[in-house]
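Give me the fold.
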Amino acid sequence: MIKIEDDFSFKKGDIIVVGCSTGPDSMALVDMLLKIRNKYDLILIIAHVNHNVRKESYQEADFLKEYCLKNDLLFETMIIENYGDDNFHNEARNIRYRFFEDVVNKYNASYLMTAHHGDDLMETILMRIVRGSNLAGYGGFKKEVVMNNYKIIRPLLNYTKQELENYDKENNVTFYVDASNSKDDYTRNRYRKYVLPFLKEEDKNVHLKFLKFSNTLSEANRFIEKTRNNAINKVMENDKIVIDKFLELDSYIQKEILYYLLEKYYQDDLVLLNDKHISLILDIIRSKKPNTYINLPNDVIAKKEYNLFYLTREVDIISLYEIEFDKYVLLPNNHVIEALDYCKSNGNDICRLNSKDIVLPLVVRTRHVGDKISVKGLNGSKKIKDLFIDKKVAIDKRDVWPIVVDSCGKIVWIPGIIKSKFDKKIDDDYDIILKYS
């Protein structure tokens, strides 16, 4: 019998956000937490992302909403409206975790819990061994990840997917199965279908061996980190690598320092990177060119400037803000957005909306990585980053440029730049007029 208290030390009054997909793993985790909710006075918030790629996803979201109402659980959800040209799973993961973090901050939660299990860890380790990584990466993901103001907790790593499905059957827990998980199109699915069954035939508890392997690598990595940190103190100045000092280091420690810098941008998602990226970074560091750069996944840029090397992302230096709109907003860039009763003009500084098409209230915020807008008159969407480039918006201005979204996160207007499909013509039906000045 699975007992979640054996795998995590709960405290009275813990506020926990649970990332829930309606799959057998997620629903098992929620059921386990419900069984101990009163014992620890837990506040549980169920966070669900509708990935909007299967027709069943809306039925599943409705089921989970009703489930939460029935069990007196707080429920937060979002729909991913558009995907770009990036790897689907990586893009969806980035959006999902950004949403989870928003929910954590909204409720001032201490923990984000996910239902990753032993099979997931095995798949990740195998994928990273084949793909290439560093010692920390080869260990897969951790049971506990410390974020800025909360922790990601994965309490089910001691159990297999089959054990969690058995738990659901024994406890009459309803769940949905995503048919796409059986397709061979995705790398992880192929490991799941063909490699893991073989390993489990060799040893039914092989997942625990992989967990031990992960923990062993984590211990070894902590030892290596001490040497790496000493080297960092010698070669880093103001978060930048001094190249001539860096090149004097052992090649292994050089790579460890680079992975350390990359973790700031990718946290425990180093699966986005492989040995090829590290080699490319080392190439530009050793290059005779005084100024050069390369683009890495998720809009991260690796830059060399004379004897200095550093990583950056344009959104890193954003003066972050998120303001609920109510008739008038004074923005950090010293512009304003205000609601009007009447207006004759129709430029990009004016936006007309019908409240029936969107979810109020509106929110004015800075851009997020991967933001896209469904452009008015264009069959499809476009990345905000590309629009800023097309419109020749200065980099420093992009960082504080306002983005107007509805309460579901749909971008309805980029003031002064472009209008979305939600914008109305002067003679259409609308009940909201906004002006940017």
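Residues 56 and 70 are 21 Å apart (CA to CA).
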